[in-house]
Amino acid sequence: VCTGCQTVIEKRGAVVLTELMYARIGDNLAGTRRHVNGPAVLWLKPHETPLEKETDVVLSVNQHCTVKNEETGALESFFGPVRVVMKSAHDGIQGGIKECTVIKHGEFCKVKNEEDGVHTIVCGPKVLRLGPKELIVGGVSKLSILKHGEYCKIKDIKTGNIRIVTGPGLVEMKPNDKVLVEKAKFPILQRGEYCKIINEMGGKIRVVHGPAFVDLGPTEEIQGSVMKCPDLSAQEFLVVRNESEGTERNVVGPTLFMPSAFDIFDKVRKVIVLCHHEYVKLCDCNGSLRIEKGP
Q: Which of 197, 168, 194, 198 is nearest to 183 (CA)?
């Protein structure tokens, strides 16, 4: 209705918002904008113009999105099932709607927080709900499953510590873990077998004789392979040198010779059997001679 000098410039209706709708209204005079969530009936002021009229985003199960306020830079995560309600005229969905990562039993992933650089490990079964500044590093991987008698070797790349995880069971990973040996079997020694084990930290060598289950420490490795102990008969012997002491000795059968950590030897030798009235002349490494007579 106009009276006197008033003139109708524009005839406008109200902006009607249902329950799942929102609108953004701009003030052309002040240069501001405001946000209104439904349900509502909006009567615009003289200098206001509707900028947007949209329906709220509804997330289903296992969906998520991040809402960013363009004015303050603040981020907020939403996880379904939920209705995403915008709180201001500067809010908007960043990167669209995404599916949550589903981690199954026996799987894991590494998550990095880009704000503080902290890494965490998430193991399944789990629906992974990432925060606004979190991301998955390297994708989803399978945890190693160890059987009885199996092990894996893992190093913490931050501290340098190495640990052995033995089966049966799943190998639980930590944020700074690096797998050195994914899966291996502990050697099982039978009677008459042995192996040498070296500690890579200090260089110490130890020997394990069978029958035995070889339990390795975090910094230990088997030197070479599993070997047989010489089983000497009554007519056989060995010349054994101890590398640590620099000494030599004869080991005469019958015996099962079980070497120590620093014992080395070559092939098995036959003893010389002397009959009555027989003898043999021997010369040692220093050139000294001696006579050995039969019985």
A: 168
What is the Cα–Cα distance from 195 to 189, expressed in whole angstroms? 8
Distance, CA of 10 to CA of 162 (rounded, Å): 78
Percent of the chain with pLDDT over 70: 96
Alpha carbon distance 292, 295 (integer Å): 10
Please answer whether residues 225 and 213 qualify as being in contact, where contact means their C-beta atoms are separated by less than 8 angstroms. Answer: no
Which pTM value belongs to this model?
A: 0.57
Give a three-class secondary structure readout of 213-241: ECCCCCCEEEEEEEEECCEECCCEEEEEE
Backbone angles phi, psi at 139, to 5 degrees: 75, -175
Give burial (CB, 10 Å; 0-12/13-18/19+) of 262: middle
Q: What is the C-alpha to C-alpha distance for residues 199 and 221, in angstroms, rounded to an integer?
A: 7
DSSP 8-state secondary structure symbol assigned to residue 5: T
Amino acid letter for position 154: I
pLDDT in tens, 187-197: 899 999 999 99
End-to-end CA distance of the chain: 146
Q: Which amino acid is located at 41 in the chain?
A: V
Place of tokens 């590093």: 137
DSSP 5-57: T-------PPEEE-TTEEEEEEETTTTEEEEEESSEEE---TTEEEEEEEEPE
Nearest in space to 135 (alpha carbons), one of 165, 115, 151, 162: 115
**CA separation for the pair 238, 219 (Å, rounded):** 33
